[in-house]
Every structure is written in structure tokens, then in C-alpha cells.
Specification:
Number of strands: 2
Structural class: mainly alpha
Low-confidence stretches: none
Radius of gyration: 16 Å
Strand content: under 5%
Distance between the termini: 38 Å
Order of helices and strands: EEHHHHH
Length: about 120
Amino acid sequence: MSEGSAVVALPAYVRGRVVLLGDAAHAATLGMGQGACQAIEDAVTLAATTDDLAAYDRARLGRTHRVASMAGRKGMIAVSRSKLVHRLQVMGMRRAPASLVRRQSGKPWDWTPPAPA
């Protein structure tokens, strides 16, 4: 991701009986290592909601948009050429309470699989 680029989120992952999942639905930058994780979550959710594809869409859209957005923001900081941006990031991480860092960094991994249909 280059500086100034934006994450483009699809409005839906389902059209009729066609379902997108993984990077086809919500590709994200590499910084968070969530590509395969989100694809696995998609597959598990799809398996649990095969009779109701709208339920798959509802279950995945918000979460995948949030994860891709987080990855995009992290990627923009990572590729920034500004020494000030990097210093502010390091200072912010050092001064942030541990509880806040855990709460923010744990969001992508905080997922509960849906119950099978």
C-alpha cells in the first residue's frame, strides 16, 4: 500500500449463489498477518450459514471491513517516510497503558465461530 492510498470495501460478498471470501472479498495489507486468518473465518462462517447466504454477508462484512481498515492504517504508518510519524508511533506505544495496547491489538484475534446451522 502506498502513502495516501485508501482501503476500498465491497458493499456485499454475496450476489445470488455466488460468494466471495478471503482476499477476493477483502484483501488487506500484509502488516497484520490477517489474510489467511480472515479467509479461514470466512470458510467457517460460510459452512455454518450455507442455507442463508445473507447471514454470511451480515456476519462477515463489518468484521472484515474493520480488520482491513486497521491493516491499512498500520500499513500507511509503516511505509511513511516521515521520521516524525515513526517517532510519534514509538512514543505512543511506550506511553500507552498496557491494557489499551492489549485491547487494541487483540481486536483482530477476538472472534468466536458461529454455531453450525
